[in-house]
Each structure stands twice: as C-alpha cells, then as structure tokens.
Amino acid sequence: MNNRYDVVIAGAGPAGGQCARDLAARGYDVVVLETESEDEFPRQSNKSTAGTFPSMMASFGIPDDVVMQYTDSVVLESPTEHYVREQPGAVLEFADFKRFLVEDSRADGAEYRFDARVTAPIVENDEIVGVRYNGDEEVYGEIVIDATGPAAPLAKKLGVVDLKRENHAIGIEYEFEGIDIDRPGFADLHDAMMLRLDHELAPGGYSWIFHTGGDTAKVGLCYIQNGSHEQYARDGYSIDDYLNHWLETDPRFANAERLEGKQHRGSAHIQLPGQMHTDRFMAIGDTVPTVDPLWGEGINKCMQSGRMAAIAADSCLKHGDVKPTAENLEVYDTLWHRDVAPNVKTRQHMTQLLYLASNERYDKLMRDLNRFDEETLAEANRGNIRAVLKLLGPSDASLLARFAKQQFGF
Fold first, then answer.
1. In terms of domains, do 220 and 83 share one?
2. Mapping DSSP to helix (H, G, I), strand (E, B) and coil, where does residue 290 land?
3. What is the model's pTM?
4. Which residues constitute the domain of residue 13?
5. Which residues are CB-neighbours of 41 under 8 A, at least 6 positions away?
6. Matching Gene3D superfamilies, A to Z (predicted)?
7. Cα dihedral sign for 386, 387, 388, 391?
8. Residue 356 in 3-state DSSP?
9. I want to staple 111 with a disulfide (CB 3.0 to 4.6 A). Which of 31, 66, 149, 222 is the partner?
10. Which has the higher per-residue pLDDT, 33 or 377?
C-alpha cells in the first residue's frame, strides 16, 4: 500500500470529498482517510438536513438522483407569524450525496481508506509531513488537510483552530411520514424548506421542516449552548426533549411516524474563524468554525471551502519549486473570506443578535419581512449593514444593549 501522496485528506464529508474530487481531477495523488466503515458509510456522519440550492448543484456538478425533493420556497416561522419567499431549493438524500462524492473522486483516481481513524499529525522539523491513524498506521503527504468537522484532531494539535465550548451548536433531526404539510393556520409547506424561530422549541437556535415529498419531511432543531440558550432554556431539558415537545404540541405532527433508521445528529462551532492554515496544512469545512447556522447554507459552504483548499494546493503543487509554506497557502484564507464567507463578522453578529431576540420580536420580524421587499432579507444575509439596520428600530434598544453586553462586556 502506498504511503506517500501529494495530498492527504482526513474526513470524507462534503468538504473533504469535494476537495478530493477537484485535486484528483487535476491529476494529483490523493488519499482520503475516513473513520467509518465503507459498508455503512455514512452512518454516524449522516447528520445534515441536506438543504441546498440549485446553484450549488450546478456549480459542483451534483446529479439529480441524490435529490429527495426540489422545493420552490423558503418559509420562515415565528410562534404566531410566518413569511414566505419564493426561492428554488433542493433537499438531498445526504447519504447518497456523500457516496456520490466518494465514487466520483475515485473515478478520477482518488484513494479512500475507510475504517481509518485519524489521531495525530506527524511532525518533522516543526512541519506536518503526514498523519497517524488507527494507532500506529502512517501516511505522508506534501499537503495535509483536516476535514473532520468539530473533532479536528489535526487542526487542534497544530494550534490552527480553537473551538470554544460556549460556541458549540448541537442538532438533531428525524425523518417522518404522516405530516400534515398544509395545516390550516400554518404556511403551506408543500415543496418548501421551513425554518422556525421559537425559543419554546429551540432556545437560542431554530427548528425546521424540510418537505421531502408526499406527506414526508425532515424535522429537527439545533441550538448553541451559550448565554442565549441559557436565557430561554427549560431546566433539565435535553435536545431530544425539545424535539419531543415540538412533536407533541404542533398539530402538524398529530399523525406523524418516524421512519426507521432516519435519525441524524450533528454539531458545529459558531464563532469567528482565525487563521485556517499553516505550513503544509489547511483546515476546511466544519473543522473551521461555522459562519452562521441559519443563513449560512452549510453544504454549499463546505463544498466551497474544499474547492478553495484544492485551488491553494494546486497553486503550490503544479510548480515543483513552490513549497506549500504558510505564506504560499495563504491564498486559501483569502479565497475563503472572499468567496465562501464574505462579510463574515457582520453576518455572524447578525445571527447572534437574532438568537437573543424574544419570541415576540420574532413575530414582529415576520410582519416586517412581509412589508419589505424581498431583497431586504437577502441583503441582510449577505452582511449589508443598511439592510440589517432596516430590520431594527427604536424598540430594539434593550435587545441591542444585551447584545453589546454579551459581545463587549458592557
């Protein structure tokens, strides 16, 4: 078995799989190390709601046969209001999608080693030169990429990321049949992806229903375990308790039944990223702190992150005399901030402010969105300060004061 490659990638998720696709298509020797067994892949890592947009499908050449349902709209709900925006989307069968990335990159020559748990970097002369996995197995590469998500065994030990517990987001999702998709008093969720802001269901976070055809849908919630969550949380409630509470109290689920084997759990870190690379190394996908979980469209961001890392690696490897030093790999950070997450600081502050708001303020937000033109929300999501300010008013003074105290301690 070969143990020397141009690029070693830890993790076969969307970021790692796409990075392998791009590099293998360029003719590089690539190996991907994945913790799970190939027969069950992806089982434990099948964690995403898998909502995305047709633009992502086209940009990355994703086939229609991994799509469970194409959708026509995005619905935002609050406890008593809702807002509907026409926005084409796609709900993926996440397992099929991840397997496609593996097989497509394999067709171009990428090698995958399953049952390969990465444990530590191999460092020589203060530079990473390879990866240790499954205890004493070793593999070497000119460039090493960590795409393992929040586990981040390589990025953490190299000091590239510092994932803080107070920014840790957790999520749970089930797939159901028997859902009342067009319940009177609620928005019609046929061919829709719905996100709900409601601290009764997801304190300091959000919940969702993504229609997957007929009377079936993906249903889940997530929240960040920080001050916003603590402010609204119920004593002794786990994330499973909140999901069960929603299922028991929302009439749309009165006749719903869980689909066997369709349970997904996941986590991410919601904080501003620092430097994402060092000599011969890059951290991609959810190994890097997430920009924001509500508006960030995670699959696309992970795929883009993998592509930017492939571009950075190619910029060094295609020239035999250009070493993959931190200086030469800095193009990855530049591309990430320009193309993956522009205006990252503003967008994250907007998300943090959103989670501090009360349920009553969420109801007002929906009413405001129904008054404004559709571009207001889109521009706010892109980090446009004027659009963000348009969504705020004099009555938000106390909310802004709490945000300032949380951010700056005053």
1. yes
2. strand
3. 0.92
4. 4-49+95-163+273-340
5. 12, 34, 98, 99, 102, 114
6. FAD/NAD(P)-binding domain (3.50.50.60)
7. positive
8. helix
9. 31
10. 33
